[in-house]
């Protein structure tokens, strides 16, 4: 399907991560000029090198946990490509896990800063360019955890639930100007984030990563009916659709890409 966005410009935060990189490839394949941003310059280099570049791709390193980073990023993006049409907020961390009584304030502060406040700040920094064009897209990469809170991931679920509410509220403000805002909520995708989770589980269980994945699916994600981790490209396809001209009547939505993991209708 032609997404109708050839020639548009996009910024992807968390761009060197599994879902961010796959999203970059999906947008590049449709002729979008893409800026990848992430915190580690070496990781960014590797991500860009792995892309099949059919149009321009750029990279800008930024640690979004720094309160001033979003404004700096906006200035650098403007110097690099000018105004953007599409913003994908993908940067995120799982952060500390455990029961609530095992978690201190810092456990919440770090996760809220990276997953919620940084997305909010990046959105604010790019609003002037996104608003001024009569056509724009913002996609927040959320999580199944926003609506299905797991009790051992409370900092993460708190941040993602806040981000989902923020995105929904935001979608009401600018839709009339052609700036559409949506969320995508994956579950258990094959990226460095869940590799790290599964390696830790494998160590605790004394088994392999594959065995940890199998036991996690069986014990912790019983509604993931496809019985496997998702691939980043399967999330990127939905993000790319929401970034596209084809999604012209989609606003304030939350698309699940979770093979059924969220148990409610
Ligand atoms: P990932 O770990 O491969 O990518 C996340 C990227 O965010 C990393 O490249 C990381 O460097 C970047 N990042 C983290 N903190 C940052 C900071 N302070 N400044 C700038 N960049 C920062 O993981 P994945 O899976 O690609 O995650 C992408 C998004 O998808 C995240 O928001 C995550 O919460 C969400 N998600 C992932 C799921 C999964 O199963 N992999 C499931 C549900 C949601």
UniProtKB/TrEMBL annotation:
Q: Which Pfam families match?
A: adh_short_C2 (PF13561)
Q: InterPro entries in the record, alphabetically? A: NAD(P)-bd_dom_sf, Sc_DH/Rdtase_CS, SDR, SDR_fam
A GO BP entry is: monocarboxylic acid metabolic process
Disulfide bond among keywords:
no
Recite the UniProt keywords alphabetically: Oxidoreductase
Keyword Cytoplasm: yes or no?
no
Molecular function (Gene Ontology), one example: oxidoreductase activity
Q: Which family does it belong to?
A: Belongs to the short-chain dehydrogenases/reductases (SDR) family.
Q: What is this protein called?
A: NAD(P)-dependent dehydrogenase, short-chain alcohol dehydrogenase family
The lineage is: Bacteria, Bacillati, Actinomycetota, Actinomycetes, Propionibacteriales
